Amino acid sequence: MTMTDQSMAPGPTLSLSALADKAVRLLQAATPLTLVQLVTRVALAVPFWRSGILKWDGFLKLSDTAVTLFSDEFMLHLPGGPYHFPVPSVMAFLSGCGEVGFPVLLILGLGTRFAALGLLFMTCIVELTVPDGWPIHLTWAAMALTLIAHGGGKLSLDHILGTVFGGAHQGNASRGM
After folding, report:
1. Taking the alpha carbons of 77, 81, 82, 85 in that order, is the dihedral positive or negative?
2. Model confidence over 89-139: pLDDT tens digits?
3. Mean of the per-residue pLDDT values for the chain?
4. How far apart are CA 86 and CA 116, in angstroms?
5. What is the Cα–Cα distance from 108 to 12, expressed in whole angstroms?
6. What is the dihedral of CA 63, 68, 71, 74, to 10 degrees?
7. DSSP 8-state code for residue 72
8. 62-65 long-range CB contacts below 8 Å, 24 or more apart?
9. What are phi and psi of 76, to 5 degrees?
10. What is the mean pLDDT of residues 71-98?
11. Which of 111, 132, 139, 173 has its CA 20 to 30 A from that of 147?
């Protein structure tokens, strides 16, 4: 065999390719889409919940710290800026509601696409407020976009309610959505 014949020999290449295919199939079997969707819902919900819960002193009562942050600390970094948030008490209230409400919806898998869209919008605002945090904000955006595209999965109230009431997403059920 010449050097050219050896380099074109399919033996080791085929076995590596077959091994890689086997590994991919094993990983896909170990991580079904519905599990990935559940983990993504939880992973996206946690940081927003943790931030949101700190903004409240009681039922619908914002903490003074939350209002102060939006009044004095947080700034929108836009061209020609930074600029103060308009109506800081309203912004703090809306932020606190979104950071608590959307994660609850995500954990339950209820209105998953709506909740993910809300958190994607909030992520954009957070990025404008803390532009140096883009690496983590990018992961939040990726998780939100994944949930918007694929829904909450079979382990969600969306799926259960869709099964019971024949929801619009039933066309996606065969793909694990």
Report:
1. negative
2. 999 999 999 999 999 999 999 999 999 999 999 999 999 999 999 999 999
3. 87
4. 24
5. 48
6. -100
7. I
8. 62/89, 62/92, 62/93, 62/96
9. -90, 120
10. 93
11. 132
Instruction: Kindly calculate the radius of gyration of the chain based on its CA atoms and give it in whole angstroms.
Output: 23
pLDDT of residue 4: 54
Give pLDDT, residue 27. Answer: 85
Q: In the 8-state DSSP scheme, what is residue 61?
A: E
Tokens of 59: 């039922």
Element (H, E) at 43: helix 33-53
Task: Report yes or no: 119 and 144 within 8 Å, Cβ to Cβ.
Answer: yes
In the three-class reduction of DSSP (H, G, I as helix; E, B as strand; rest coil), residue 77 is classed as coil
In the block, which residue shows the tokens 């994660």? 103
Q: What percent of the chain has pLDDT over 90?
A: 66
What is the length of the chain? 177
Q: Please, what is the angle between helix 112-129 and helix 134-150, to 10°?
A: 160
- pLDDT band of 57, cuts 50, 70, 90: confident
Give the pLDDT score at 177: 43
Task: Give the tokens for residue 25.
Answer: 């199939």
Which among 38, 36, 44 has a CA at the least distance from the CA of 156? Answer: 38
- Measured from the Cβ of residue 42, the count of other Cβ atoms closer than 10 Å reads 14
